[in-house]
Amino acid sequence: QVQLVESGGGLVQAGGSLRLSCAASGRSFSRNAMGWFRQAPGKEREFVAAISWSGFYTAYADSVKGRFTISRDNAKNTVYLQMNSLKPEDTAVYYCAADDKSSSFDYTPNSHSEYDYWGQGTQVTVSS
Predict the structure, then answer these.
(1) Quick check: 26 and 77 in contact, CB under 8 A?
(2) Which of 38, 46, 64, 108 could be disulfide-bonded to 50 (CB atoms 3.0-4.6 Å)?
(3) Minimal CA–CA distance to 62: which of 74, 42, 47?
(4) Which pLDDT score, from 0 to 100, does residue 34 have?
């Protein structure tokens, strides 16, 4: 049974920081790309960040580039999203995702269709 569990969401003031964690269980994702997506009310799910299995390659949506940092600890089977300089428009449910296929190739998928496992989401609310 594969499970991804996000944590670290909450309420924060604009300009503040928050760190999200995504702990995977049921299998190792040390050779799998992982990513973060978010969905705000009335909006489509959008790509936020991705990291290759090695952690060497990362990708970010333009809206968060320079403010968010994705990282991973394969020994802990966990991926993180450090969010700095938060804005009210960052308010959304944040989802962790993982690619089902292990690979020796480093890549950073940015489409939701490229991911196979999803967490339940964690709410991030940024007040102005």
Answers:
(1) no
(2) 108
(3) 47
(4) 96
Cα–Cα dist 52/33, whole Å: 5
For residues 108 and 48, give the distance between their C-alpha atoms in angstroms, rounded to a whole number: 11
Q: Which two tokens stand for residue 19?
A: 């760190």
The structure tokens listed for 48 are 């936020």
Question: ∠ at Cα 78 (76, 79), nearest 5°?
Answer: 145
The per-residue pLDDT for range 79-108, each reduced to its tens digit, is 999 999 999 999 999 999 999 988 778 899
Taking alpha carbons only, the member of 26, 31, 17, 40 closest to residue 95 is 40
Predicted pLDDT of residue 77: 95
Which positions of the chain have pLDDT values less than 50?
none
